[in-house]
Amino acid sequence: MQPTVIAPSILSANFARLGEEVDNVLKAGADWVHFDVMDNHYVPNLTIGPVVCEALRKHGVTAPIDVHLMIEPVDRIVPDFAKAGASLISFHPEASRHVHRTIQLIKSQGCQAGLVFNPATSLDVLDYVLEDLDLVLLMSVNPGFGGQAFIPSALDKLRHVRERIDASGKPIRLEIDGGVKTDNIAEIARAGADTFVAGSAIFGHPDYARIIRDMRDAIASVRA
Ligand code: DX5
Ligand code: ZN
User: Fold this and answer.
1) Average pLDDT of the chain, as a whole number
2) Residue 108's pLDDT band (cuts 50, 70, 90)
3) Residue ranges per structural domain of the chain
4) What pLDDT does residue 205 have?
5) Are the C-beta atoms of 89 and 78 separated by less than 8 Å?
6) Could you tell me the distance, in angstroms and rounded to a whole number, from the CA of residue 177 to the centre of ligand 2?
7) Which of 11, 15, 90, 140 gets mutated to test ligand 1 (max ligand atoms within 8 A of its CB)?
8) 34 C-alpha vs ligand 2 centroid, how far in Å?
9) What are phi and psi of 122, to 5 degrees?
10) Beta bridge partners of 57
11) How remote is the C-alpha of 83 from its chain's centroid?
12) What's the burial of 79, exposed, middle or buried (CB within 10 Å: 0-12/13-18/19+)?
C-alpha cells in the first residue's frame, strides 16, 4: 500500500479566495490538491478548468494537483490540463470512447493517469488497463456535488480493487472520493484506500490542521 495521502477537494473552498485557501490547507498538512472539473453535461454542475489550475501554479502552489475530470468528451482538454500544471489526471471510462487511448494520452503529456468509477459503474475495464494506471478512484457519492452522504457499497468495491492492486504488485494508488469524514475514514482505510479526498469535511471545518490531523490519526489507528 502506498503512503497515505489527504487530498482536500477545493470544490468546497471559498472560490473568492482560492489561492489563500489552497495555501492554508497545504500549510495545515494536506498532501495534494483535489481539483474537480465539471461540465454541466457529464455531470449536472459546472466548475473550473485549466485556467484556474494554471493560476494556482502561478500563485506558487507546488503540491501535486489531482485533476478529477467529470467531463465528456475527455481527450481534447487533457493537453490543456497538462500544460496548466496538472500532476495527475483522472477520468470516467464511460466519458471516453477509447479508454486505453485516453490513458496513453495522459501519460504522453507527462501526467499520471487515473480511472474513476461511479457508485454503479462496473470495474470491468480494469481487466484490461489496471497495470497502465497510476491510480484508481472510487466514487462513494454520485459525482457533481460536494456535501453528499457516503454510499456504503463503496467499501466492498474498495476491498475488491485493493486485492487486485496488491495482486498486480504495482504501486497503484487507491483513492476514495465522496462523503469522507473523520467518523468513517477509519473503515474506509480498513477497506483498502490509501488516498482520501475530502471536501466539505475539511473546508467546512474552522481548523484545517485539526481536521486533517484527526483524519490522519483515524487512518493510523487502522494501519497500526
Ligand atoms: C464530487 C466530487 C468530490 C466532492 C467531494 O463530484 O468529485 O471531490 O468535492 O466532496 P465531499 O467530501 O463534500 O463529499
Ligand atoms: Zn472529485
Assistant:
1) 98
2) very high
3) 5-223
4) 98
5) yes
6) 6
7) 11
8) 6
9) -70, 155
10) none
11) 19
12) middle
Q: Which residues are catalytically annotated?
A: 36, 177
| Cα(211) to centroid(ligand 2), Å | 19
Which among 90, 47, 84, 97 is positioned nearest to 197, based on CA atoms? Answer: 90
Nearest CA to ligand 1 atom 9: 146
Question: Which 3 state secondary structure label does DSSP give 1?
Answer: coil
pTM over 0.90: yes
Closest among 114, 218, 109 to 175, alpha carbons compared: 114
Q: Mean of the pLDDT values across residues 99-120?
A: 98
Provide mean pLDDT across the span 154-178.
98
Supply the DSSP symbol for 72: S
Residue range 24-82, pLDDT digits in tens: 999 999 999 999 999 999 999 999 999 999 999 999 999 999 999 999 999 999 999 99
Q: Which atom of ligand 1 is nearest to the CA of 148?
A: 14
Distance in angstroms (rounded) separating the CA atoms of residues 224 and 126: 30
Is the preceding omega at residue 73 within 30 degrees of 0, hence cis? Answer: yes
At 117-160, the pLDDT tens digits run: 999 999 999 999 999 999 999 999 999 999 999 999 999 999 99
Per the listing, cell 483498502 goes with 192
Query: Per CATH, which fold does 5-223 belong to?
Result: TIM Barrel (3.20.20)
